[in-house]
Amino acid sequence: MSLTRKQKEEVIALTEADLKAAVSIVLISYDKLTVAEGTEMRNLLSEAGGHMRVMPKRLLKIAFSNIKIGLDPTDLEGQVAVAWADDPVAPAKVLNDFAKKHEEKIQLLAGSMEEVKALATLPTREQLLGQLLSVFNGPVQGTVRVLSGVQTSAVRVLQAIADQKESN
């Protein structure tokens, strides 16, 4: 059953509002996904704070045009879905990881593929914080090792002296 004109206008308006508020937008082709795989992808995206909408390319083209996104989804092949989030990396990373597991069934289409893939391969915020913490922690650990090395050396010297006196 096709949408009425009013329903189409509502979908376009809702999509425009969501995409205007989004920091990142990714278009994907998902032609061969099963319902279960599509649900898994949506759940993973949702867990990362992202959202996804499947809609006709004509309506997506109108929404893009209204919010000044210079991409024409009707030029893209296959069924297209749009994903977005407040995080600049989350949708690209989740969808790229999902696409690696389902290579034949999903493709990232949006914008420059190099930019989308570069964003998708960036470490998460938590990983970056962990790396930063280890950089800060490194000098402290080195100092502790040096100081404990002095104590260990002193104990070894004293033990060697005690062993020598026992043998005499």
Features of the shown structure:
single chain, 168 residues, alpha+beta, Alpha-Beta Plaits, 2 domains, four-stranded antiparallel sheet, 6 helices, 4 strands, 11% strand
Number of domains: 2
- Average pLDDT confidence is 82
How many DSSP E strands? 4
Strand order within the widest sheet? 2-3-1-4
Shape: rod-shaped
The run of helices and strands is HEHEHEHEHH
- From the N-terminal CA to the C-terminal CA, the straight-line distance is 102 Å
Output the CATH homologous superfamily of the largest domain.
Ribosomal protein L10, N-terminal RNA-binding domain
Estimate the helix proportion, in percent.
55-70%
Structural class: alpha+beta
User: What kind of sheet is the major sheet?
Assistant: 4 strands, antiparallel
The CATH topology of the largest domain corresponds to Alpha-Beta Plaits
